[in-house]
Design brief:
single chain; alpha/beta; Arc Repressor Mutant, subunit A; D-Maltodextrin-Binding Protein, domain 2; 3 domains; nine-stranded mixed beta sheet; two-stranded antiparallel sheet; 11 strands; elongated
C-alpha cells in the first residue's frame, strides 16, 4: 500500500535543497538549521521508500529519482504559490466567475465580454470553459451557462437555440439554395437534418457530399469560417461571424434545435451576478430579434 504524505514540510525542504544545491544553502533560505533540513528530508525519504540525495562528506547530490521528483515538486509548489498570490489579490465583490461549454465560451461569450465590462467597469471576469457542469455557489462559480436539452429545467430562463445554413466567402462569393449540393456539407452529430432539408427542397440528392462530422459546435463554426463547406450551424455560435462577414447565411428558414441555454446562478443573487444575468438576457433577446427580422 502506498504511504501517504502526512507533512508537506518535507517536500518544501526537499525542493529548496534540490534547487539550492545542498542542505546548508536550503537552511539559510528557510531560516532553519542544516540538521533540521536534513531530518525533514530523511523523514520524507522514509515515507517515500527511496533515497532522494546521495550524501558525501562535504556535499550532497540528487539521485535520479530525486531529480525527477524535484522537477515535479518545484512545479507544484510554484503553482500553489501563484494561486495563493492570486487569491490574496482578488476582490470578492469585483470578481465574477463564469463557466460555460468550450463552444459557447469561444464563439459567443469571448467576442461579447467587452460589451459587459464596458457596462460594468472594474469587474474582474474569470471565465472557465468546461463541457462538464461545474458547481455554482460560494467558493465555486457565480454563474453557469449550461447547454441543456429543451425544454430545460423548470423555473429558469431558457434560451432556445436555432439552426441556420451558412458558408464562408472563402468558399464562394454567392451560393443559392439550388447550389447546395455542389459543395461539401458540414454537420454535427448526424446527417438527419441535412437529409430532411435536401428532401424538402426537392434537390437531386443521389450522393450528397457529407464531408466532415464534428463533435463540438464551436469546431463546426470554425470549419465553416475556414471555407471547408456549407454548414448547419447553431445561430448563437455563428452570430458573431455572421456580423463580421466571415459567414454568409443562405436564405433558408431557421430551424428549432433540440437544445438551448439556461443560466444557473448562486443564490441569493449578488449585484454582480444580477448585472450579468440581466446583460445576458438582453444580448440573447437582441440576438433572437435579429434572427426574426
Amino acid at each position: 500500500m502506498r504511504k501517504r504524505l502526512r507533512n508537506l514540510a518535507g517536500l518544501v525542504d526537499f525542493e529548496t535543497a534540490a534547487r539550492c544545491g545542498g542542505f546548508q544553502q536550503a537552511a539559510a533560505e528557510l531560516h532553519k538549521t542544516p540538521a533540521a533540513v536534513s531530518q525533514q528530508i530523511r523523514q520524507l525519504e522514509q515515507t517515500l521508500g527511496f533515497t532522494l540525495f546521495s550524501r558525501h562528506a562535504q556535499c550532497v547530490h540528487l539521485t535520479e529519482r530525486g531529480r525527477l521528483l524535484a522537477s515535479t515538486v518545484s512545479e507544484v509548489l510554484r503553482t500553489l504559490h501563484d494561486k495563493i498570490d492570486h487569491l490574496q489579490d482578488e476582490d470578492p465583490e469585483a470578481t465574477l466567475r463564469i463557466t460555460s461549454t468550450h463552444s459557447f465560451s469561444l464563439k459567443w461569450l469571448a467576442p461579447r465580454l467587452a460589451r459587459f465590462t464596458n457596462q460594468v467597469p472594474g469587474c474582474d471576469l474569470r471565465l472557465e470553459s468546461s463541457d462538464t457542469a461545474l458547481a455554482v455557489g460560494p467558493g465555486a462559480c457565480d454563474v453557469a451557462i449550461r447547454y441543456v436539452q429543451m425544454p430545460g429545467q423548470a423555473g429558469l430562463a431558457t434560451y432556445p437555440e436555432q439552426l441556420i445554413v451558412a458558408y464562408s466567402p472563402l468558399l464562394a462569393s454567392h451560393i443559392d439554395i439550388d447550389m447546395l449540393l455542389r459543395f461539401p456539407l458540414l454537420y454535427e452529430g448526424t446527417t438527419d437534418l441535412w437529409q430532411q432539408i435536401i428532401a424538402e427542397l426537392g434537390l437531386n440528392a443521389s450522393k450528397p457530399d457529407f464531408a466532415h462530422r464534428f463533435s463540438h459546435s464551436g469546431l463546426l463554426v470554425q470549419a465553416a469560417v475556414a471555407g471547408h463547406g456549407i454548414a448547419l450551424l447553431p445561430y448563437s455560435l455563428a452570430s458573431h461571424d455572421l456580423e463580421s462577414g466571415q459567414l454568409i447565411r443562405i436564405a433558408l428558414p431557421a430551424r428549432a434545435h433540440t437544445h438551448g441555454y439556461q443560466i444557473h446562478a448562486s443564490t441569493p443573487l449578488q449585484p454582480k451576478v444580477s448585472r450579468f444575468v440581466q446583460w445576458f438576457d438582453q444580448e440573447m433577446t437582441a440576438l433572437q430579434d435579429l434572427l426574426d427580422t
